[in-house]
Amino acid sequence: MEWSMAVFVLDRRKKPLMPCSEKRARIMLGRGRARIHRMVPFTIRLVDRLRENSVLQPLRLKLDPGSKTTGLALVREKETEEASTGEIIRTLTVLTLLELNHRGHAIRDALTGRRAFRRRRRGNLRYRPARFDNRTKPKAWLSPSLRHRVDTVMAWVTRLSHLAPITSLSQELARFDTQAMQNPEISGVEYQQGTLAGYEAREYLLEKWGRECAYCDAKNVPLEIDHIHPRSLGGGDRVSNLTIACHECNQRKGNKPIALFLAGNPERLRKILAQSKAPLKDAAAVNSTRWALYQRLKETSLPVELASGGRTKWNRRRLGIPKEHCLDAVCVGHVDEVENWHQPVLAIKATGRGSYQRTRLTKHGFPLGYMTRSKGVFGFQTGDMVKAIVTTGKKAGAYLGRVAIRASGSFNIQTATGLIQGISHRFCSMIQRADGYGYSTTKIALKKGEAGTGAAHAAALSLPGMNAVVSRAIG
Ligand SMILES: [Zn+2]
To answer: What's residue 463's pLDDT?
Structure first.
């Protein structure tokens, strides 16, 4: 059986219905029972159906917020009670996987540049009182680059809730759950792989020790859990006796007491012993953006399930699912079984809506050139998704992609295969207007030993809209 991305379905009054398969969407369009409502994400509108007469099932939108990429997954949820134990088994069927790529860095760079230009211009005003220290920031203020992350995630939560009847939300809030570890600094924990508490403890230790080897500061290497006071000499499994070390250091230390192992380095010995006693503050587990996002999600009035990163990782390993942002989102919170996760991913890149500033500047802040006063040319705007059918000349052919306009009317089109330059506006027709995002579909790469249905990709690209779904930011 081949799985593919679900198609969003609206009723005749544009109220969301349950998403359907692409095959079904194609049949409905063919019979004239549906119209194409939106190309990306592909959405159809049924002309003869009302939401009141339709059956809806529980849909959950799951979020794994990240600094560069946020994973989103829309899943259908089924809960069954196991007869023998009374446990609730939650089975998820993945409908759509999305990855939202943020542009926090671009925002930060632009603001830093602007600040530098202004400082240069205004620094010359000699006879004005100092004005740099007279502003306060409101409480819970987030910098523009961070606020952008929260805003774009919320924009997509809202957008998706207009396309599908979402009934609940899940968000990964903290990296680890101190409750699941039962006060990690006091009681002993089972830290072996396979139990949830172990995953929480591991994430906790990584955070506490700064994700580097405590003995040699090695970063970006596999890190192992090490007993500061060796177990063979009576050291316990409590978290305050654990640290993280690279494989070499862990081997070299072996079962030596730490005072002996670090005899030549009293400075580091003192640091490690001090650090081991200091419990990590809870606040370090929740970063400010995730917290701000949670506050905004609560305002949607949908129930929000919160979970820790340790639980996500535990679910992912247990279910044999590869590490991808969108699949991490699937694994957030309470999950027992996952179906249909191996499918194409809609990658959404926040591109912005162009520059407000109409003067291009050199790196010293002097004018370099001017952009057109209006952002539109011949009815097109940079970021629009267009289809160009060129009938004559060297560039004859059909192109689909994101357009970058020029005042001359000779446009550039970013297609799936590359940038096509100098296409006249006369050959272009609008597929979807620019909305501040670029879209492309990507595949989940499977490693050996990971479950999956192999050829799940083919069907996804066969709908009229879907192979138009390609664009990358231009300039
Ligand atoms: Zn090391």
So the answer is: 31
Helix (H) or strand (E) holding 145: helix 144-163
State the pTM of this model. 0.78
Distance CA 330, CA 315 (A): 9
- Identity (one letter) of the amino acid at 28? M
Any idea what the Cα angle at residue 291 is, between residues 287 and 292, rounded to 5°?
A: 115
Quote the pLDDT of residue 466: 37
- What whole-number distance in Å separates Cα of residue 26 and Cα of residue 175? 42
What is the pLDDT, as a whole number, of residue 433?
94
Q: Residue 217 C-alpha to ligand 1 middle, in angstroms?
A: 6
Name the average pLDDT for the chain: 84
How many Cβ atoms from other residues are within 10 Å of residue 67's Cβ? 13
CA 81, CA 78: separation in Å to the nearest integer? 10
- Ligand 1 centroid vs 312 CA: distance in angstroms? 27
User: Residue 277, exposed/middle/buried by CB under 10 A (0-12, 13-18, 19+)?
Assistant: exposed
Which stretches of the chain drop beneath a pLDDT of 70? 1-3, 124-126, 130, 178-197, 281-286, 447-475
pLDDT, position 134: 78
- For residue 7, give the 3-state DSSP assignment: strand
The CA distance from 94 to 341, in Å, is 5
Closest listed residue to residue 70, CA positions, set 207, 199, 171: 171
Q: How far is the CA of 246 from the centre of ligand 1 (A)?
A: 4
Q: Which residues surround ligand 1, an ion (CB under 5 A)?
A: 213, 215-216, 218, 246, 249
Give the residues across from 174 on adjacent strands: 308
* CA of residue 216 to ligand 1 center, whole Å: 4
Residues β-bridged to residue 71 = 64, 99
